[in-house]
Fold this sequence. Notes:
Blueprint: E1 7-11, H1 17-27, E2 33-37, E3 48-51, H2 56-66, H3 69-77, E4 82-85, H4 87-92, E5 93-95, E6 107-112, E7 123-127, E8 136-140, E9 145-149, E10 154-159, E11 162-168, E12 171-174, H5 185-190
Amino acid sequence: MTGTGHRIGVVAVQGNVREHVAAIERAAPDGVTVVEIRESGVVPDCDALVLPGGESTTISRLLRTEGIDAEIVAHADAGKPILATCAGLIVASRDARDDRVETLDLVDAVVDRNAFGRQVDSFEAPLDVAGLDDPFHAVFIRAPAVDEVAPDVDVVATWEDRPVAVRDGSITATSFHPELTDDARIHRLALFDRLPATA
């Protein structure tokens, strides 16, 4: 999608990149540009970012190798929106309880990797999400859960009394995969509702 308005970047080192691009296009107002980020130098030109799911140890290693990690931190420090999903939540957290994952410390939370089981334990569930009028049909695949959050982190949704979506400042992080449904409300809520209006 091309246009003259906001520029949304999808970190594309690994994970559900194509699905997030499609979800952004469904959620986006006219005139939005979507770019896939595989190397440093692109993030600084983006107004918002998506950090997709995938394999958290691989994602964290590639972000560091490509020099994208520091740019994402600077993006967050500038107060620009980020949507981090599944493994993206793990990488964005303060503590993944796994030394193999070099987290970005963007979301002040402790995460339990694969909290809801292995691939065969994947499931779907209707979630009540703060900011949405109707439940969101969430897809959980080898999903993490949030074990601890700092007092200033908002819990946006829970499942079985465990936080599965949180917001820390301009960053929204989910245990589930909103890009795997046709419902673009999570992308709209996390990205476009938090962007300044363009002229």
